[in-house]
Specification:
Layout (H helix, E strand, L loop, with lengths): L7 E4 L7 E5 L4 E8 L2 E5 L11 H10 L3 E9 L1 E2 L2 E2 L1 H7 L4 H10 L3 E10 L2 E2 L5 H11 L7 E3 L2 E2 L2 H10 L7 E6 L9 E7 L2 E12 L6 E9 L5 E7 L4 H10 L19 H6 L18 E13 L2 E2 L2 E2 L4 E5 L21 H5 L2
Parallel strand pairs: 1-13, 8-10
Antiparallel strand pairs: 2-11, 2-12, 3-4, 3-5, 5-8, 6-7, 8-9, 12-13, 14-15, 14-17, 15-16, 17-20, 18-19
GO biological process, one term: DNA recombination
Protein name: DNA ligase (ATP)
Pfam family, one: DNA_ligase_A_M
Length: 348
Amino acid sequence: MPPVRPMLAKSAAAVPPGMLYEAKWDGFRAIVFRDGDEIELGSRSGKPLTRYFPEVVAALRERIPQRCVLDGEIVIARDGRLDFDALLERIHPADSRVRHLAEVTPASFVAFDLLALGDASLLDVPQRERREALVAALRGAGAPVHTAPATLDIETAKEWFGRFEGAGLDGVVAKPLDLPYRPNERVMVKVKHERTADCVLAGMRLHKSGPVVGSLLLGLYDADGRLQHVGVCASFPMRRREELMTELAPLRMDSVEGHPWQEWTSQEAQAEGRLPGGPSRWTGKKDLSWLPLRPERVVEVAYDHMQGDRFRHTAQFRRWRPDREPDGCTYAQLEEPVGYDLAEVLGA
């Protein structure tokens, strides 16, 4: 019965040997609970996603066993690759909006584990056997319900790691073959792409614990010469947060006037470009206030991949680049993966 927290993965630098390998999907993790006509979609945090994906619920009702619990990912594809922004649009309070988007940008469900079938719990069953049971349970299910491609061959997994990125996938997950299902434990392994980019440091947010740096706001210049907000750099030790407050003090501006993001409170300006701190229903009551810094310093950060014109996840600090000029920090430096059609991934 819900809620069940999904099994998680810890990061590794390389694909480990001797495991079951799958592509790492970039969507909403979801646990599917079905008992007859009753279907519930549970999120990673345990909160229900059911009302936001009516077309997925309808498809599952037609294609999966009458009583089962599945672990997988809800994804939306546009032009042959995953589109995480389209997923975010679904988390909307208006049912009419959700149902409209369900028709315009329908979602799919990619299953990669089976937790229960009929009266049997499979949590203590080894991964290899759960995979076999999953394939058998969903044999012939058909789109938009898919069984995630998997392999035991490490060379194939390494090939997937490079080849599938063009379809919007962001790495490989490796699962020990004798691993039972362990909710909310990091017992799988994930290997993600990492690249670096030189960004303009243009602002900072304070840490929730007090007057120390919480995150650094990063910018890149677009083709029109506008500094766009592309993400944040965070995850500093507390001592380093304190040091950064002192180190960045000379760059602090008394006000936002004259800053490239001085119009960040304007909804019109938000619509025209990537600016920090603007109103958003996704962030709720989260404090998005920020302190402007003169955009004079360049920082090299590591990132896994882009979602549209921003970093998909929090970037990681690598080093300051005093040898670089801010106006040279443009989108042109970013590496683009070779395109790969998502339909070919699901057919792998």
